[in-house]
Each structure stands twice: as C-alpha cells, then as structure tokens.
Task: structure prediction
Amino acid sequence: MRNDKAFSMVSPSAGFTSRVMTRLAEHERAKAKRRALIGSALLIVFAVVVIALIVVWLASWVAVFVTTPQLIVSLVNAFATVAFWIGVALKGVGVAVSAVAENIGAPQMLSLAVIVGALTLLWLRIVAGSTLTSQTILGGSR
Result:
C-alpha cells in the first residue's frame, strides 16, 4: 500500500510564471531583432550590388561614346528622323480631325460622343469586372 502522507506536492516559487514569460518575451524580441538586422544587412548588400551594376553599365556606355564619337552623330540623326515622321503623322491626324470637324453636324457629333461614352463604359466593365459600381467610378468606399 502507498503512504500518501510521505509524498508532498512541489509547487513553483512565487513569480515563477511571470519570470518564465518575461524570459520568453526577451527571447522572442532578441530573435526578432536578429532577423531585422540580417534582413537589413541583406537589403544593404543587395542595394550596393545593384548600384555597382548600374555604375558599371553606365561606365560601359560612356566608354562606348568616348571611343566612337560618330555614334553620337548617328543617334542625333536617327532621333531627328523619328521626330520628323512623328511630326508628319501628327500633322496628318490634325488635318483629318479638322476635315471631320468642318463636315460634321451637331447630331452626328452627339451620336459620336454617345458611342465613345458607351465604348468607355464597356471598357470599364471589361477591366473592372462585375464589381463595377457607382462608388468605384466616383472613388467612394463601400
């Protein structure tokens, strides 16, 4: 038979739970601080590597332009040609718009405006999906 009087329950000292919880919290804070320091260090290293790569890339372009000055003249001529053709295209669009504006009446202009509005709403419906509401269009909150 067992003698229950010989055995006694051992209980922790006063404040044991709070001390354990404090140590756990300190441990978690230290771990979070270590993670933040490691993440910051990795971010700084990554930023330095990216900046170094950009500097090397820019230096290579500068070296190309310094060694071949004819390239600058070729690029300026190419941009001038592109600018000329963009100007021709814009002038053509301007002539077409003015021709349409001179030869169209108010009813036709109204119908074109309605068509443009309908196409815009159709585009909004396709882009926004079925969640499109008046609050979405006006910028309100749900």
